Amino acid sequence: MESRQILFRVAAGGASALLLGTSALAQEACTAYTVKAGDTLGTIAQAAYGTGDYQNIFNANREVIGDNPAGLTEGTVLNLPCADGSIAGDATAAQIIEEQNKIAAERPKSNAYEPPVKFLAGGNYAPFSDEALDGGGFLIRLAETAMHRGGNTRDYATAFVNDWAAHLETLLPTGAFDVGLGWYMPNCEKRDLLSDSMKYRCDQFDSTLPVYEPVVGYYTTKDSAFAGATSFADYKGARICRMDGYFTFDLEEEGLVPPAIELVRPVLPEDCMEALMTGAADVAGMEVQSAADAIAKLGIGSDVVENPSLSKVLSMSFITHKSNPFGKQYITLLNRGLTEMRNTGEWYAIISSTLDEHNKKMMEMSN
């Protein structure tokens, strides 16, 4: 969980960041689609949903797509989710969640008292965590549900604090809260490549298994000299926009650090997109969900493109501070619950139902 954002539009019409390539022409949501030569996830999403935001397709086809969303293979069969995020022929999100709640309710409860696990989230980060969403957003719903899955019967208490820096610097280190909900963690095996702020995450926190895996895309104006980059090395010399307080390890791992680049640090995703349009930045790197909303808000879908060759799949995790004496226990509980949820389909159901709620709110705002 990083900076305040509004994310993910499944069916926003006409104002999207298009990937290069045009072969995906007439496929429909709620069907299977066979990838053709020249397809990208962006062109497929544009044809099926009217937006260049393809995170929903990635979520539904994670095992098929792998770690390189920019490298689709011709002949790959993708399940294109329905507008509400469900997969054609499968139970709906509501049905899956209801069934798992019934199963959990029948499990015996422990009589031993254990204090509630104190979860820490931030608001204004829809659909990840936002008090205006049902259950507070899907990160909160995943964490709270995990406490009653996989054999867990642990109580919890969740609070929202919108000072993101305080989460890492004070609230988790001092034990005021036990678990931070939704942070990007770097590959700590590449520690020598990381900035001090990213090393801090490695040194001070333990993390769960991946909770969610957003795709980060890299955007330019259509006429930019960097639009045709085929490797991250091609971005050397660029002014790269990344929101203030956001992760930077994706760039650091590629050697894209000052003075090889200039880092531009505004507050919001739309600020980065405006920086592209005004010439204050050359490249903007952010989740494809964030980008789609920012582009739609600004109405610049005909001017901004996502690089079709470069993308990163990053992992969001729940974290505990290493000084917390029960931190590793909480990590174990969460991993156990999340693993069961993935196996039963409840993980995907919770995410898709939250996205459906968020998408409808975004549509209402645009009308």
From TrEMBL:
Signal in keyword set: yes
Keywords noted in UniProt: Signal
InterPro entries attached to this UniProt entry: LysM (IPR018392), LysM_dom_sf (IPR036779)
Signal peptide range: 1-26
LysM domain mapped to chain residues: 31-80
Keyword Signal carried by entry: yes
Gene3D superfamilies tied to this protein: LysM domain (3.10.350.10), Periplasmic binding protein-like II (3.40.190.10)
Protein origin, superkingdom: Bacteria
Full protein name: Transporter substrate-binding domain-containing protein
